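Narrative summary of target 7.
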Amino acid sequence: MSAIDLDYAMLHKAAQQMEKEGGSFAKHIAQAFYVADSTNMETLVRAFDSLFSEYYRKYRRAQIISIREDYENACDRPYTRGMFTNEGESK
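Modeled conformation, tokenized:
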């Protein structure tokens, strides 16, 4: 996935994740992203494509883990892979 393909909301989530988990460089890139105009924002995303992509993936992973934990807490049973698919049906 290329960061340039992400919409603004996704890039913003990536920047938030950079601030939360990143080192000082990633945190400064996130802060620059917040104050950039649209031209400079695009320049930042293109220049640091791998950084934005990496932190967006980390955000999505954290989101999935949170959903699983919420499910487990609500149902008092562990989430197992494939439990929401039609595994028993013939294809």
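The longest helix spans residues 49-75.
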